[in-house]
């Protein structure tokens, strides 16, 4: 929930009071008990670096040690680059430290990060208590008011310019985090590695090329994920085309609900459904049942409550290899139009 104009000033006053109290009682020591994880060795000449974002620019001068992720996927990029965040923001699943199974190896034997709960707005005071030296919020809906408060705590990186809320692609998250922690070449190498896996999947499945696909959920009608949503981008990375009217229906948002009058937008070669009930509600929808996509079972049902569903929605440099192993065979079974093979 964005901070209102009045709420911003209240949060700022609370923050100033908290920081004063922490300074007074700590005597210069870290209230978290230590200086944090060891800094990752930066690549030569990589720091200082200035990163442009929707609210201006942020300069990082030294390798950060205590990084807080207020972006929902940013901690995967940090972990992939060897940086152990002191705090993450929970999005999907109830994993210790909000670190999914696809990222546990990257965390190694480090302590689980503190998990921030963003359901009631950003926990400014809790973040301040962690004494971060960098705050990352690339894949987020960070408002100007949020940014102004966070940047009083530590240098803060907001979403890139010209990207919608929750619309920063995983490649850009990874490379921007790489610049911020002084490892831009390693970030590029990681991105290239995943791109090679995507290319292998496309080569193995030429039937994906030019087939149409959309990601959807049942919510206030049919919720369509737009071209800027990372899950949708994954389908286009695999060769699929999007419905021609998707941009018109969704606009510049990451997604939007449409009514039954627009149900035909679902009638693609594949629909990837995000579900909580194994598709039971979908099967009760008489209108959807009349569409070719339903009759030919050109569907992939992704359970929001399991590891695969969580990884699919995470869409990060670490989750994508995990997802591709599980998603690609299901897309192949759905796109063939044979009702006896299901995704």
Automatic annotation (TrEMBL):
<dbReference type="Pfam" id="PF01497">
    <property type="entry name" value="Peripla_BP_2"/>
</dbReference>
<comment type="similarity">
    <text>Belongs to the bacterial solute-binding protein 8 family.</text>
</comment>
<dbReference type="GO" id="GO:0030288">
    <property type="term" value="C:outer membrane-bounded periplasmic space"/>
</dbReference>
<dbReference type="InterPro" id="IPR051313">
    <property type="entry name" value="Bact_iron-sidero_bind"/>
</dbReference>
<protein>
    <submittedName>
        <fullName>ABC-type Fe3+-hydroxamate transport system, periplasmic component</fullName>
    </submittedName>
</protein>
<dbReference type="GO" id="GO:1901678">
    <property type="term" value="P:iron coordination entity transport"/>
</dbReference>
<keyword id="KW-0732">Signal</keyword>
<keyword id="KW-0813">Transport</keyword>
<dbReference type="InterPro" id="IPR002491">
    <property type="entry name" value="ABC_transptr_periplasmic_BD"/>
</dbReference>
<feature type="signal peptide">
    <location>
        <begin position="1"/>
        <end position="26"/>
    </location>
</feature>
<feature type="domain" description="Fe/B12 periplasmic-binding">
    <location>
        <begin position="66"/>
        <end position="335"/>
    </location>
</feature>
């Amino acid at each position: 929930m964005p901070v209102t104009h009045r709420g911003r000033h209240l949060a700022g006053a609370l923050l100033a009071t908290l920081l004063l109290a922490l300074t007074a009682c700590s005597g210069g020591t870290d209230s978290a008990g230590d200086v944090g994880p060891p800094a990752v060795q930066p690549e030569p000449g990589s720091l200082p670096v200035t990163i442009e974002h929707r609210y201006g620019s942020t300069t990082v001068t030294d390798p950060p040690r205590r990084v807080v992720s207020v972006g929902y996927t940013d901690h995967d990029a940090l972990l992939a680059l060897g940086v152990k965040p002191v705090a993450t923001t929970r999005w999907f699943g109830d994993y210790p430290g909000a670190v999914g199974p696809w990222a546990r190896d990257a965390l190694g034997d480090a302590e689980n990060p503190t998990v921030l709960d963003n359901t009631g707005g950003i926990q400014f005071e809790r973040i301040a208590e962690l004494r971060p030296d960098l705050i990352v919020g690339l894949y987020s809906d960070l408002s100007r008011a949020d940014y102004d408060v966070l940047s009083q705590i530590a240098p803060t990186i907001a979403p890139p310019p010209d990207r919608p809320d929750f619309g920063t692609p995983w490649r850009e998250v990874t490379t921007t985090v790489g610049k911020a922690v002084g490892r831009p070449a390693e970030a590029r190498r990681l991105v290239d590695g995943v791109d090679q896996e995507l290319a292998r999947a496309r080569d193995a499945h030429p039937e994906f090329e030019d087939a149409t696909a959309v990601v959807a959920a049942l919510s206030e009608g049919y919720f369509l994920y737009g071209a800027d949503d990372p899950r949708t981008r994954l389908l286009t990375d695999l060769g699929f085309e999007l419905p021609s009217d998707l941009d018109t229906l969704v606009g510049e948002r990451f997604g939007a609900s449409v009514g039954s009058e627009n149900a035909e937008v679902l009638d693609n070669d594949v629909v990837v459904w995000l579900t909580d009930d194994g598709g039971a509600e979908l099967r009760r929808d008489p209108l959807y049942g009349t569409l070719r996509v339903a009759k030919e079972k050109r569907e992939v049902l992704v359970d929001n409550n399991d590891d695969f569903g969580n990884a699919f929605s995470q869409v990060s440099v670490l989750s994508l290899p995990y997802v591709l192993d599980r998603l690609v065979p299901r897309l192949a079974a759905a796109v063939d139009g044979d009702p006896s093979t299901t995704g």
